[in-house]
What we know:
By secondary structure, the chain is α+β, with helices and mostly antiparallel strands. 12% of the residues lie in helices and 14% in strands. The chain is built from 2 helices and 3 strands, in the order H-H-E-E-E. It has helices at residues 5-8, 24-30; strands spanning 34-36, 51-55, 60-64. A 3-stranded mixed sheet has the order 1-2-3. The protein is extended. The mean pLDDT is 88.
Amino acid sequence: MRASVVALARSVWKGPYFVHFPKLQESIQYGTPIKTMARSCTIMPHMIGALFEIHNGKSYIPLRVTEDMVGRKLGEFSHTRKRFSYQLSKNK
């Protein structure tokens, strides 16, 4: 049984979870990527146009923040699992 989205939401009085990125303005102006492992950080409106490299457990995945991503988490855009498909063997 999965919990509902309402039960998993962060309480209003705490506010959104946010990590301070000191080089955020530099990333927006010059396009320098910010490497981060903070997958649970909420995307805020002042982050639009920034370039992040989000860690997925093995490597860093590039991500440019757009207006549609505001309010979501950074980790939603870097998948941690690969697709699995069966390969036919030659010895069949």
